[in-house]
Amino acid sequence: MHPHIEDYALIGDQQTAALVSTDGSVDWLCLPRFDSAACFAKLLGDEDNGHWRIAPKGAERCTRRAYRPDTLVLDTEWETAEGAVRITDLMPQRDRAPDLVRIVEGLRGEVTVHSVLRLRFDHGSIVPWVRRADGHRVAVAGPDSAWLRSEPEVHTWGEDFGTHAEFTVAEGEKVAFVLTWHPSHEPRPPLIDPYVSLEHSVEDWRAWAAHCRYQGPHRDAVVRSLITLKALTYQPTGGIVAAPTTSLPEEPGGVRNWDYRFCWLRDSTLTLGALLSAGYLEEAEAWRDWLLRAVAGNPSDLQIMYGVAGERRLPEYELPWLSGFAASAPVRIGNDAVNQLQLDVYGEVMDSLSLARLAGMRPQPQMWELQCALMDFLATVWREPDEGLWEVRGGRRQFVHSKVMTWVALDRAVRTLEHHPELGGGDVDGWRALRDEVHREVCEKGYDPVRNTFTQYYGSRELDASLLLVPRVGFLPPDDPRVVGTVDAVGAELTRDGLVRRYSTEGRQVDGLPGGEGTFLVCSFWYADALHATGRTKEARELFERLVGLANDVGLLAEEYDPVSGHQLGNFPQAFSHVGLVNTALALFGDEGAG
Description:
Layout lengths: L7 E5 L4 E5 L3 E6 L7 E3 L10 E6 L7 E4 L6 E6 L3 E8 L8 E20 L2 H4 L4 E5 L2 E6 L2 E8 L4 E4 L2 E9 L3 E10 L10 H16 L9 H13 L1 E2 L4 E2 L22 E2 L3 H11 L2 H15 L9 E2 L10 E2 L13 E2 L10 H15 L8 H15 L18 H20 L8 H18 L1 E2 L4 E2 L26 H13 L1 E2 L2 E2 L18 E2 H13 L3 H13 L10 E3 L4 E3 L5 H19 L2
Antiparallel strand pairs: 1-2, 2-3, 3-4, 3-5, 5-9, 6-7, 7-8, 8-9, 9-14, 9-15, 10-11, 11-12, 12-15, 13-14, 16-17, 18-19, 20-21, 22-23, 24-25, 26-27, 27-28
Helix pairs in contact: 3-13, 4-5, 4-6, 4-13, 5-6, 6-8, 7-8, 8-9, 11-12, 11-13, 12-13
């Protein structure tokens, strides 16, 4: 049987990440970066597309697994008739080359363990040439090279285009494997000590987690979410990928399969707020600085997403040799949404930089000049229809959320000059007048007075979960009847078993895609926030408890959840879902949970 999405755990080195299944198999790993080609792609295909499984001979799912507290070090244990064994998986924060460390430890009795490594470069399509050298197995194909070694050395052999090993461990015995990647034209990088790397990884992660200021209910879930966000951060630049995976389906067997290994601007404000509120100023500044570098240039060229180092070209194409997760094709690399017009990102960028300034971050040269340029351009395009925050592929519309975020951009620009007149420049009177015009238009054209709710786009009857953000961004106060009505309408029309969908997918009217999708987890967190803001705190806390309970056994959340099947859907783990968890915990328990 194909694993479920929630069967996976994440390990990583803050430049890339791997997914480890409950059967002890590493089924996804892109090297050397999050957005590089995968060398293990079984996640989206089968064993012949690359994986590395270590487990007791004949065993299937593990007995238990868990992260070591406050770390990204994963322990997986099996109980067998012969004894018990633990496998510890980690990717140490790299010096130069990425390393995947897997330590096998006997806990009881004497257990026979089998390892099979199938490296497949270029997203599972290329079988490398493998040779022996200096006690290593060396795999080479084109630009990629990987070295496998063990301490102590165990016997390995080639079979079925894979590298196999079989050995026994008794109680207290250990065998460590290290897989190291490097460009094939370069010499092998220095060897690491796997046990020292494990010790340092545990120490480093726990020291980092200790900075979390939140001390309220579900602190473990909040810390796990923050560790996940840290793991999804590309350390050299500070960019945070939406997820480390591509093409995990929003509907089993469907075509809603997208590449999320990039950095979205719209995640910026909520991510920045979560990091700042939890006490991680350094990470927040790195994210802010990535944002400034990425959006630098002509405002008309602003994109909604970028590569981890700020790359702009992310062409979308399909990989026909991969069958897709649970036969959900196509598998896509790149994302054509990069070419869409999404007006809301101007609001998110302005809101992020305003938040950074309010938080007292070190100012960056030309930041205000860039913001003024963005505002001048937005003033010329805000009336245009766009694809909206959900990146629909069914044509542009006058999305209400996009107009609300246009108002946010203008509002933050005005407020910045009101509080910092020394910045100079900028047409504050013109921005103030335009802000009022946008507000009036949204209230006239984006609001349905008969149903007492804001709508998805001008003149529609459809709803959209993004409308839950209207009070959060300050467009209207939470006690405004139109806000209360919108929250009630979303609860009545967009919830499924109490969880929130992004919008209705019936009829393909808006997104232009066949099929449906699950409930969107970040939208459900927004619903909890809106319930709390409108005075329904008991309901909000009950929903939050349920959402925390949807995380898998190691505390991770995908993009979506299917209440019918009880399984997670979409790319995994999803940064936005974990940002939602952190922000909702802070909103609900901030006063009692502040350290």
